[in-house]
Amino acid sequence: MERLMQYVWQHRLLLHTDMVTVDGRKVAILDPGQLNTGSGPDFFNAKVSIGGDLWAGDVEIHVRASDWHRHGHDGDRAYDSVILHVVDRDDTEIRRHDGQTIPQMVMKCAPEFHSRYHDLVDRADIDLPCAAELAAIPPLYLTDWITALAYERVYDKVDRVNAILESTVGDWEQTCYVTLARALGFGINGEPMQRLATAVPLHFLRKHSDSLLSLEALLFGQGQLLDTAPAADPYVARLVQEHKFYAHKFGLRPLQPLGWKMGRMRPGNFPHRRVAMLAAVVAGGFRLLNRIVGLTDTDEAVRMFSSAPSGYWERHYTFGAEAPGTLGGLSRGSAESLVINVVVPLMVAYGHSRGDEDLVQRAMSMLQDLPAERNAIISMFERAGLKSRDAFASQALIQLRRSYCETRKCLYCRLGHRMLAARARRD
User: Fold this and answer.
1) Chain centre to alpha carbon of residue 80
2) Are strands 34-35 and 53-64 parallel, antiparallel or unpaired?
3) Quick check: pTM over 0.85?
4) Mean pLDDT score of the chain, rounded to an integer?
5) How far is the CA of 230 from the CAs of 73, 226, 258, 260, 261, in angstroms?
6) What is the DSSP annotation of 43-94?
7) Quick one: which of 94, 99, 12 has its CA closest to 60?
């Protein structure tokens, strides 16, 4: 409730006819001040007119006026600068530590505002309660928000790349390898894939990059995927033997359980094939970063991830029984997903580190060249009239859903703000 009241004050959504202090003096907001997310009053450096007199200082907001005493503000000199106390319920008079009375105002909004706020927030993580109103959003306003969301999503991924880069002490190749491993988990197994790639680093695998069998043995063995593999399978037996050799030679220790997920999953998404793909990329030498930063064509980027696994994995989804026929590589959609989640953030992060703005713009252009993703989130927005023309737009809508709807941050969504502001200002 207090956060909602802060939002109303910050964006001046109060009905002007109701802006009076409890003792009848008219209040006008000249400057709501700066929202304070730390200790001290809620808004710093506000300017308000109270009864025709100009006041400059801080504003404190509470649900009940008595919260002033409950929170100990009456004895805290940091609150001596408060010029106005804004409350939902006026249940007591409040004073500074020296006994001086502080002007107090009851916050009133249009009656529909509070109910609409709860309509949105209470269901935002379940469905799309604003769906009926989205069609009325002006196209230019919507385009601006989509653009901001797309960049926000890309830079969230760039932050993850930079965090990996910091943990590898500036090793861009290892960062690229871990980023690829995480993306090959395609969400559900992203964390286990990243943990495996971190525990079996690229500099170690490079010593054995001339042998695909050795790479697979190290990754499958350390990833504990050999533990439940059928021992009667000749290829499994070779991997187990190879892993035992390296474990003894280099003193490799078992990792903590990685938490692989396989339930309710298509066989093509089993972690075994993803680990095999990671081993195949490392085989012969890992040069992915150089290829990525040199990309000028989106189709070329997609083709980088389109090759099919070889050898054992041509006919297997996992260890054991063979598939009915020869298995292909990643689908076009999966390869495009790797461009979105590996190529684009790496290009942007690397471009910023080198001051290469052209590389950053090439990366963002790739999102506009790729088709929109197809998933439940995109379908939800399409039913509400928001269609994605390309991956730039679909990434924006995924960001909107994940970072605003599901976290119930309707107050911080530009669309939610527009809808709530319209309700608050209705007399």
Assistant:
1) 40
2) unpaired
3) no
4) 90
5) 68, 8, 20, 18, 19
6) EEEEEEEETTEEEEEEEEEEEETTHHHHTTGGG-GGGTTEEEEEEEE--S--
7) 94
